[in-house]
Every structure is written in structure tokens, then in C-alpha cells.
Amino acid sequence: MTPTDPLVQTPSVKTPEAFTDAKAAVDRLCELYETATRFLCQEFASALTDGPKGPRIRAFYPEIRITTHSFAQVDSRLSFGHVAEPGVYATTVTRPDLFRNYLTQQIGLLIENHNVAVEIGASDTPMPVHFAVANDTSLTIPQEGAANFTLRDVFDVPDLSTTNDDIVNGVGFAYADGAKPLAPFTAQRVDYSLARLAHYTATDPEHFQNHVLFTNYQFYVAEFEAYAREMLADPKSGYVSFVSTGNVEITDPKAELPPVEKQPQMPTYHLTRADGSGITLVNIGVGPSNAKTATDHIAVLRPHAWLMVGHCAGLRNSQSLGDFVLAHAYLREDHVLDDDLPVWVPVPALAEVQIALETAVANVTKLSDYDLKRIMRTGTVATIDNRNWELREHEGPVQRLSQSRAVALDMESATIAANGFRFRVPYGTLLCVSDKPLHGELKLPGMASDFYKTQVARHLMIGIRTMEYLRDMPLEQLHSRKLRSFDETAFL
What we know:
Elements: E1 8-9, E2 17-19, H1 22-50, E3 56-57, E4 60-68, E5 87-92, H2 100-114, E6 118-126, H3 129-133, H4 151-154, E7 180-181, H5 187-201, E8 211-215, H6 219-232, E9 239-244, E10 248-250, E11 268-273, E12 279-283, H7 288-298, E13 305-308, E14 311-314, E15 324-333, H8 351-365, H9 369-372, E16 376-384, H10 395-403, E17 406-410, H11 413-423, E18 427-435, H12 445-471, H13 475-478
Parallel strand pairs: 1-3, 5-7, 8-12, 8-13, 13-18, 14-18, 15-16, 16-17
Antiparallel strand pairs: 2-6, 4-5, 4-6, 9-10, 9-11, 11-12, 14-17, 15-18
Helix pairs in contact: 1-2, 5-7, 6-12, 7-11, 8-12
């Protein structure tokens, strides 16, 4: 329940209500969220024009809550859609309009598996004015000192105590009243990432699809656009639009895309389907820090899979430029996730994703079985945080690479896989050998140009085919128990 305080002005909201219909529950979430954001936006606009009226202005995130008194007898093969034991579980919610399908599905599973109603009402978590204002393009938050009042004296601002990864990191998160988490992220954590995504990718979160391809080269973008136009020209493809930087959206395969004056840090493109099951391509650039940043924020959208389809250094003399590497293990020397996921935690290969990747390679290359081994190695991928590792003395690094049995080295794959493991997002890696620094084949301009021309299209198509295979897989099979710990949230 929302606390009452005469010194705090809040919107009038309905009392919590029990629902046994998931769609009706989500409708109430949307109503509560709209009431809260509209109130904050109106009061903020008024405060900017006329100054604050006196009392503190506050609105609250909506909340989903469930209470169960028995151990549910659910299909033991299912990794989500149920809580582990009797108790009270809750989650705050933001942007229910954006997450409508996800929320309807997850709430429906709770009701079905536990045969109890879910309670929808206002939470005790204040909504920061920054995130409410993000829904109104006519308003912006002024810099500290630019307004005629101190912002945090009147409105709530982001609070790090509810904007963190404590739930997914498994550190024993509980809400203030003792309720256990229903979902992997709090509303503030989601709002923070939605804002960051728009900043880094220059596309709105609404455009992101459930299947995400990461690459570390812009060369893949032209091929992705060409494929998108081909799909838009085919009415049977199921794809309905292509979204480019700056939220430019086309549905006509011959439509022009205006040139981008200023590229964002992580250019992102979306080949969309009406139900969100299309494909998003993100050029994260080079380095584990970028890889972590992208996956930290995309994770709140709860994608069904993400894959790395980038370039790597081949570490074996038997490899050739253009060969593929299917990662089945990772040597983590990227260090950016050490505090969140210690290096002693194994990051396993996921059979469902591995099979889809190998099937896609065979489909695109027209090779199979033993012949496939000519162009693809399965093995350990090492990810390092030093792009110029070749310039250091080689005795130590090369010895570690050899001891690990690594077959390839890059700067992003292990980070993406590790964050997939941490966030319970199915992950995989298929890299393409672009140089062999240990064997005298450095990535030089002329050689690289020829390589890119011949390999990018095929590599990208393998990633697309893989996502299409995974899209046809039942969710309960793709989101398997391998990514779930002892005490998991009910929501994916």
C-alpha cells in the first residue's frame, strides 16, 4: 500500500485488487503507471513554470504481488513460471505498455501453476521524476542548479538502493516488507537501462526484438540492411519493418534511409516482426567494456537469445582466414565482470544454441559432418581486455592460451556469454578468423579488405539462420534449467 503523509502530494489511485485474468491484471498495471507518470509530468511542468507549491510531489511504481501457501506441483522440466516455495513474492513494474506481452505471459503462468490470484496495486517504491518525464517529449530535466528550486527537495530522483543487480547476482535481495522478488529486475533498474539504451543505440527500446546479434564491425550493417530489404519485399517472410539509427523506420524495401550525421556509440538496427520475434543487430564496437554495457541494458528487455558474430584471432596454425570458431567454452581474461560473476563460475555452452549454430553453418555453407571440420573449429574462445596483446612478451600469455586449449581470441565473446549466463539470457558465439598473429598473419589493411568482402555476408547469414531456428523453438526448451540457480525468480 502507498504510505500516507500530509507533507507529500500523491495521485489518487485504486486500492490493490486481486486478478485471476492476466490480461486484466496488465491493463490495471498500465492504468496505474499512466496515472503516476501523468501526475509527475504535470506537477513537474507546473513547478518549472510557477515554482513548487509546497508539499513534496511523489508517485509510486505499480506492483505485482502473489501469496502462496503451498508448494506447487509443476512440471519439473519448467525453469520459469512458478515460485519455489510458499511465501510472498513481488516486483515493481515500469512501462507495462512496452512489456505487455511479457507480463501477460508471466502472470498467466503464475496464476495457472499456483491456482491463486495476483494482486495489482501501487508499490511503496517512489518513481523518479527523470523516468516519468522520459515519457513526455515536451519535458526535460534541467541540470542541477538550472531550475529555480532544488529538484530532489520536491521530487524523487534515482535511488541506487533499488537500481542495481542484486537480484540477478543472487545476493539475497528482498523488498522492504520482506517479499521475495518475482522478476530479475526492479522497476528503477529497468527504467535506468531503457534510458541508457536510447542513448547508446539511438533507437527506442520499443524497436528491440527478442533475438539479438552482436558484432564488433560495422561491415555487417550493410549486409543486414540488404537482407532486411529482401525480407520486406517478401510478404511471406513475416518481417514488417526495418528500423535504423535515429528511429528511422521503413516498410517499403525500396525506401531511402537518410545518412546518419552522427553515429551513436553502438549503432543498432532492427528487422521487426509484429510479435517482437524479429532480429536486432548491435555493433558494440571493440572491447569487453562495450560488451558489458550493451548486455547490461539489453538484458532488461528479456530477449530470448543473444549471439556474438564477430571477428577473432585464430590461434591454431591449421586455421585459415575466414574459418569459423564455435565456442564451447570461454577463457575469461576480460575482467569487467569479475565482481559480478567470479571467474571460478563456469559459463557452459548451451546445447540448444550450439545445435542451432552448427545447423546454420551447415545450411549456409552446404557442408556437413566431417567436411564441416574443414572450415569450423569447436573449442575454447579466450577473451582479453588488451587489444594489443601481441605487443607484450609472449611467454606468459601464449602459455596460458595453450594450456587452456583456446582456438581463438577476441575482446567481447566471453563477456557477452558471461552476462548471458548472469542474466539468464540464452547465449552463443560464432566467430570468424580474421588474422593469425601468432603465425605471422596480422590484420593488415589490404588483406582485411579482401577478407571482409568474401566473408561478412556468409557469417551474418549464419547468425540470422540461427536466430530463426531458435525462434521456432518452444520457450520452455530454449530457456532451460541450465541458466537457473537454486532460488530463482518466477519471471524469465
